[in-house]
Amino acid sequence: MDDTLLLAARALVLADLQARDRAVPDAVDALEDACANRGWWAEQWPEGEAFVAGLVAQDVQDALFGTLGRWPVCLTCDPEVPEHALYIEPDIGGPMPRWVCEESGRTVAQLGRLGPAG
């Protein structure tokens, strides 16, 4: 497998972590772990390469939930709506993964293109 696939996935997720001020050591460690695990996965199923970036994002999201809380949270809904997360759609990570609001169902951004918090 070509490392370009994992480097691209890493860059997209890292951009979103940075955009939302979550590129802290624990998050970057989770990202590195997710890339390593999905690299093995992609070697086993080469036809699934289009899904890797979205799956890495989901893996990081799951890892952070237990330590840093929800990431990324939705910033597009009314501030009076309780805090809620964005999720990757399609559910299996790709192709063309995007962040979608779990409350409204609206697409907020393509993976790697989240806007900054505040």
What's this model, at a glance?
This protein is mostly helical and 118 residues long. It is 43% helix and 10% strand.
Distance from N terminus to C terminus (CA atoms, Å) equals 39 Å
Low-confidence stretches: none
The helix/strand series, from N terminus to C terminus, equals HHHEEE
| Rounded radius of gyration (Å) | 14 Å
Q: Which bin fits the share of residues in helices?
A: 40-55%
| Strands side by side in the biggest sheet | 1-2-3
Shape summary: globular
Structural class: mainly alpha
Number of helices: 3
Total domain count: 1
Description:
It is a single chain. The protein has one domain. The protein has a three-stranded antiparallel beta sheet. It is globular and about 45 Å long. A hairpin with a 5-residue loop joins strand 2 and strand 3. The chain is mostly helical and 118 residues long. The chain is built from three helices and three strands.
